[in-house]
Design brief:
The chain is an all-alpha fold. It contains 4 helices and no strands.
C-alpha cells in the first residue's frame, strides 16, 4: 500500500488528537462533599468540571471572580455624579 491508496480510503472525519485523554477515574462524594464541590466549581468560573478537577488535582491556579452588586451600584452612581459635575463646569 502506498500513500496514494491510503488517501483514497480516507473518508474524512475528525483528525485524531496528538495526545488523547484516555485514562478515566471515578470517585463518589457524599451529599455534603458534592455541595462543596459544586460551590467551588461555580466560584472558579471554569467551563467544564473535568478541567476544574484536573486543575485542582495538579495544583494549577484557579481564578475566582466575585461580583459585588453594591460596589457596582456605587461605581455607577459615582460615574453619573462625575458626569453631572463635568457638565456644570
Amino acid at each position: 500500500m502506498d500513500g496514494n491508496q491510503r488517501k483514497k480510503w480516507n473518508k474524512g472525519g475528525r483528525k485524531p488528537k496528538l495526545n488523547p485523554a484516555q485514562n478515566r477515574y471515578m470517585f463518589r462524594l457524599t451529599d455534603d462533599e458534592n455541595a462543596r464541590f459544586l460551590a467551588m466549581f461555580e466560584k472558579s468560573g471554569v467551563n467544564t468540571k473535568a478541567k476544574f478537577i484536573t486543575s485542582v488535582l495538579f495544583g494549577k491556579e484557579i481564578k475566582t471572580v466575585k461580583v459585588d452588586k453594591a460596589t457596582i451600584d456605587y461605581y455607577m452612581r459615582l460615574t453619573n455624579f462625575h458626569s453631572q459635575f463635568r457638565s456644570m463646569v
